[in-house]
Amino acid sequence: MEEYPSKQSTENLDDPPNSRLFAVTSRSITEDELRESFSVFGDIQGVWVVKDKQTKESKGIAYVKFAKSSQACLAMEEMHGKVLMDGTKPIKVFIAQSRSSNRHRDVEDEELTRIFVMIPKTFSEEDLKDTFKEYGDIEYCVIIKNKSTGESKGLGYVRYYKPSQAAIAIENCDKTYRAILAEPRTKTTVTEEYSGGTSRGEYMGGNDSMNQYAFPMAEPGNYQGMDYRSGDFTRCLMISTRAALSQEQIFALFDLIPGMEYCELQRDSYGMSKGHALIRYSNLGSAVYAKEKLNGFEYPPGNRLAVNFVDDGEDRSSPVGRMAMQLVAAQMMSAVWNGPSNSQVMKPHQGYSAVSNMSRVQTDVNLPPLKKLAPPDSKSKERLFVVFSPSPLPLDVLEDVFCRFGSLIEVHLVPGRKVGYMKYADKQCADDAMAVLHGRVVNGVKMKVMLADPPREESHKRPRTT
Questions:
Q1: Buried b (16+ CB within 10 A) or exposed e, 377-415
Q2: What does pTM read for this prediction?
């Protein structure tokens, strides 16, 4: 295993937690070269290259210990995949597991981005976000509430996009929040985590039953499906999608219906989307409306969403409760059936506030307004080459996006391939489109936008041989 200097106590290697990196390097990389490359990220307390006991040659494995977890996380984010020295392969950098751990893998990014905090019971989710947004971009916040009363338990979760952001929040936030990394969401621990079980018992206090967010984050088959035609309506929905939608895209879509209080994209142990999300509304009417309007809705175009009711754990067995539920549902169904179709813009019904138009283009980019296409016979001054993942966007959507920068002549998709070309009559417009759209996600599709090679005019002048 790794050979640490004897003066370095084992306990200090994991103090603070997640402050030690595990790196896979070229065997020619030395400790001094590693120290020089990583020192820009913070105070390094030790660098160790693992060597063969017999030959004393490097095994191509090293450890780097930082003084702070945030420094180690930032170094991991910036150095993973970088080439340290000419002629060597890119290094792989991970947060090393604790030496006392019995796991056989290093720490996943999924486990490093979510923190658990103690907050005033008067805090709203917006208050929680405002408090912690200074440490980095926040993916979502959740306040844990008592299922029976709906009151806050004074506990919450904040999930950041990057491990370094979560580490900075833990290190720098007010100590009264008692911020720590949240335990990984596994099939066996998630219910305890949200319900005040053993994993967080020291913070939860009391004997409150499972709170309103206590849903086991497992496969959809583990949820009890509800048949809405027989009157089994709930405030909780399970969404299934084949396209790679992000948490923000799902949130933005279902937040069009007022009353959404929880949105969770389910991920596997590697942080990848499972293609399912859990949505909960504060009232039955919103859930019924969302189910009827968005089940079968194509988002992005070509990807049909499946939306179904799932059991939310509430007891509706009493005759009065069931009658009330069916009455609300009937009113909402009437509003849906007598309103516009799913292909039209959703409009407010029965007391709903105005809802934003559901655009066919969903992205986190601030796009300019639509502009007219350049005449088809315009001379091309610049072409962009676009690579799509996982699949190309429809032509009309691409035209909608790329025309906003002006002088777009045409969009061309290469048949059978995940690439296309955007032809512009003005070079500056093409440059602007590339600067804004490269690496961005539109309707669940990530785009790499680059300058295309100039067409080889001479190839058309070659005489045809027989």
A1: ebebbbbbbbebeeebbbeebbbbbbbbbbbbbbbebee
A2: 0.43
